[in-house]
Design a protein that fits this description.
Length: 338
């Protein structure tokens, strides 16, 4: 096994055993596949509400929606021991907004962010800290070109007492059986984005150095570069209804391409309802509310038919607190969420 695929695409055949045999197979598979594996050390983090966490994927989109505190909790394959769990927190500051500029989203020039992610999968615990910075160039009356860069520090801990038989027999991991090890990695993210009040298009690269700067116990052999494309469009249909669509694409050489999109309707600037699809993997249903300064959302995700996924479903909760502006329209055509 050369890489870890969080969704286990193509990891087992379509034939479904029944009864007790099926239960044994399911638990065996999740134990075998719940590590990032190993030689390559891949762990793909999914966020169904990716449109609310644009700056995590692209530092150029830092504070695109203004200064805010953001966070989410995601429990994948709910109900299975050793299943992935992810927690995320970020703080984004738009310097123009802090200075009181009339339209900082368009007129502001600089922004910064702090991102903290904790991911738990099988015998591995990963903590990642990313510092991001973005600068904007005004192209037209309504368009900005945003450029960003980020420095990431990642600490990966391995619990050698929780490894599966497959991992224990691995040439690289076998030497850590029964003990505790950790590895530190420093890398870089870069991104650029074309933004408008109604739409955006962005491109980013994660782990530009391929995990080349590392220390500690080297139980992973590098971290391949990720190439990420994001796009979105939103439109106010009336003063009570707006529609929003978002697209996401991610490429990594040793894993299948990750393609997903979602579509939402915002009603009366208070409630949104939506649905999303991760190609060949899962569908999801979305629900959220806007308060004066807070956005809260929930996603219920379930595997598609024939996607070879475990039967457990995924729950994802997110919250965003706006630091300087309220969730109210400044003009009739403004849309308050992505």
């Amino acid at each position: 096994m050369k890489s870890y695929c969080r969704e286990m695409n193509n990891c087992f055949a379509k034939r479904k055993p029944s009864g007790k045999m099926k239960k044994v197979l399911v638990y065996t598979l999740i134990l075998l596949l719940s590590a990032p594996m190993l030689v390559q050390g891949q762990s793909r983090k999914y966020i169904s509400q990716f449109n609310f966490f644009q700056s995590y994927y692209n530092p150029g989109l830092t504070a695109y929606e203004g200064s805010a505190l953001r966070g989410f909790v995601r429990n994948q394959w709910s109900g299975f021991e050793g299943a992935p769990r992810t927690m995320f927190f970020s703080a984004e500051l738009d310097f123009g907004e802090m200075k009181g500029e009339e339209d900082p989203a368009l007129m502001g020039k600089n922004a910064a962010s702090l991102n903290l992610l904790f991911d738990e999968y099988g015998a591995f615990r990963e903590t990642s800290l990313v510092l991001g910075y973005a600068s904007r160039i005004r192209l037209t009356e309504k368009h900005n070109l945003r450029l960003g860069a980020g420095v990431s520090y990642t600490n990966v801990k391995l619990d050698g007492t929780s490894m599966t038989v497959e991992q224990q027999n691995d040439e690289l991991l076998g030497q850590y059986i029964g003990g505790f090890s950790d590895m530190q990695i420093i890398d870089f993210n870069v991104g650029l984005a074309l933004t408008h009040e109604k739409y955006y298009l962005s491109y980013a690269m994660h782990q530009v150095n391929g995990g080349g700067f590392s220390s500690g116990d080297e139980f992973m052999d590098g971290r391949p570069v990720n190439y990420i494309v994001q796009a979105g469009y939103r439109e106010a249909i009336s003063d009570k209804v707006a529609v929003i669509g978002n697209f996401f694409y991610r490429n990594q050489e040793d894993l299948p391409d990750n393609v997903e999109f979602n579509l939402k309707a915002l009603l009366m600037d208070k409630l949104w309802l939506g649905a999303g699809h991760r190609v060949d993997y899962a569908n999801n249903l979305q629900l959220g509310f806007l308060l004066k300064r807070v956005k809260v959302g929930y996603v219920y995700e379930f595997p598609t038919n024939g996607s070879y996924l475990l039967p457990g479903n995924t729950h994802e909760f997110m919250a965003i607190f706006s630091l300087f502006r309220t969730n109210e329209r400044k003009h009739a055509k403004e849309v308050l969420i992505w």
